[in-house]
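Input record, target 12 of the design panel.
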C-alpha cells in the first residue's frame, strides 16, 4: 500500500496548506480530485503494461514449450532409427527449450501476482475517487467548517493571550487622552455671554465702590 500512503500524505499536506494559507476550499478540493484522476490514469497505464507483458511472457513460454516438445519427438524418432548420437543432440535442444520455458513460467507467476495487486489497488483508488467526487459538496462544507473553526480558535487564542485586551486598553487610553485634551480647549466666545460677563463686571465694580464708601464713612465718624 505504498502508493496509498504517498497519496494520503499528499492529500494531508494539501489540507494543511489549505488551513494555513486560507485557500479556497472548493479550488483545493478540485486540485485533490485532479490529483486522484492523474493517479488513476497512471495506475491504469501501469496495469495495461503489466497485462501486455504478461501476455508476451505467456506467448514466449508457450513457444518454447512447443519447441521443446518438437525436439523431444525428434529425439524419439532418431532413437527409433538407432541413431543415439542424433537423439542425444535432440535431447540437448529439448532440455534447453524446456529450461527457458520454465523460466518464463516463473515470470508468469510473478507477473500474475503483480497484476492482482495492481487491480486491487486500482479498485480501491477508484472507490476513493468516486466517493470524493460524489460527496464533493459535503467535503467543501466540512473544509469550510474546519477553516471557520481554525479562525475562531485563533481569535480565542488571541483573547486568551491578552492581545485583544491590550488593543482595547490602548483604545480606551487614547479616548481618555482625547477627552482630556478637548476639555482644555476654550470654546469660541459667545457675544451674549460677553455682554452678561460685562454686566457682572460692572455690578462687581459698583459693589466695590459701595464698600469703599461705607469704609470711608466709618472712618470719618470715628475721627469725630
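The sequence produced for target 12 reads:
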Amino acid at each position: 500500500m505504498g502508493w496509498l500512503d504517498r497519496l494520503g500524505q499528499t492529500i494531508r499536506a494539501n489540507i494543511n496548506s489549505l488551513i494555513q494559507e486560507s485557500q479556497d476550499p472548493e479550488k483545493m478540493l478540485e486540485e485533490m480530485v485532479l490529483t486522484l484522476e492523474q493517479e488513476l490514469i497512471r495506475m491504469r497505464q501501469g496495469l495495461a503494461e503489466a497485462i501486455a507483458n504478461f501476455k508476451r511472457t505467456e506467448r514466449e513460454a508457450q513457444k518454447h514449450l512447443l519447441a521443446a516438445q518438437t525436439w523431444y519427438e525428434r529425439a524419439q524418432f532418431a532413437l527409433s532409427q538407432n541413431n543415439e548420437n542424433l537423439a542425444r543432440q535432440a535431447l540437448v535442444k529439448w532440455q534447453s527449450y524446456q529450461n527457458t520455458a520454465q523460466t518464463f513460467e516463473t515470470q508468469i507467476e510473478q507477473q500474475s501476482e503483480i497484476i492482482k495487486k495492481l487491480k486491487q489497488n486500482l479498485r480501491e483508488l477508484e472507490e476513493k475517487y468516486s466517493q470524493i467526487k460524489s460527496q464533493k459538496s459535503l467535503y467543501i462544507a466540512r473544509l469550510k467548517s474546519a477553516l471557520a473553526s481554525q479562525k475562531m480558535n485563533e481569535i480565542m487564542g488571541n483573547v486568551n493571550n491578552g492581545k485583544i485586551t491590550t488593543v482595547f486598553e490602548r483604545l480606551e487610553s487614547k479616548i481618555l487622552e482625547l477627552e482630556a485634551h478637548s476639555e482644555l480647549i476654550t470654546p469660541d466666545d459667545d457675544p451674549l455671554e460677553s455682554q452678561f460677563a460685562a454686566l457682572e463686571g460692572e455690578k462687581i465694580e459698583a459693589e466695590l465702590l459701595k464698600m469703599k464708601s461705607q469704609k470711608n464713612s466709618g472712618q470719618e465718624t470715628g475721627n469725630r
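The helical segments are 2-21, 25-80, 84-134, 136-160, 163-184, 191-223.
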